[in-house]
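Re: weekly structure request thread

Next one in the queue (171 aa):
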Amino acid sequence: IDDEARRRGAGVDTEHGRSEMLPNNLIWNTFNLKEGEDRIALSVLLDVDSDGELVSIDFDETVIRVDRRCLFDELDAMLISNDASAVLSLRDKYRQFLPQIDAMYSLSALLRRKRFERGGLQIDKFYREFTYNDNAEVNGFKRVAQSDSEAMLFEFTLFASAELGKYLANK
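Done, posted below.
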C-alpha cells in the first residue's frame, strides 16, 4: 500500500474523473465510511468548550458507525432554501441529527472567527466544474465556490490538524 501511495502521490481531480492516491477497492470498500457499517479506527478525540478552546485531546481505538450519510447539498439546502416543501422533507430526513448539525455550524463559525482574530488567512476554496461537448471532450470549466457545509468541514479539519500538530510537537 505504501509503495502504491508513493507512486500515485495524491488524489487528483481531472477532466476525466478522479485519480486516487490509493486503489479504489481500498478507498470505497475498506476506508470509506458507509451508513450502517462498522469501521475500526484510531480516533483523535478533541473536547472543545463553548468558547472554541481545546479542553482535552485523546487517542483511542474505536469502532465508528455512520448513522446517516449527510450530503453537502442537502445540508446547505436546509440552511438557505426558500422552498419550504424541499426543506421540510430534508428536516424530516435529518430530524434526529438537527441539534448536532446546528451545533456543528455554530462551532465552525466560532472557530473560523477565532482563526481570523489570530491572523489566520481567509481560505475560500473553489472547485473546477468541467463542461463537455457532444464528443465528451472538455470544452471549458467554471469555478464553483465551496458550500457552507463544505466550509464547516474544512474549518474542523484546520482546527483538528493544528491542535494535533501542537500536541505532537510537545511529545
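The radius of gyration is 19 Å. Helices lie at 2-8, 24-31, 72-80, 84-93, 98-117, 148-169.
Next request, please.
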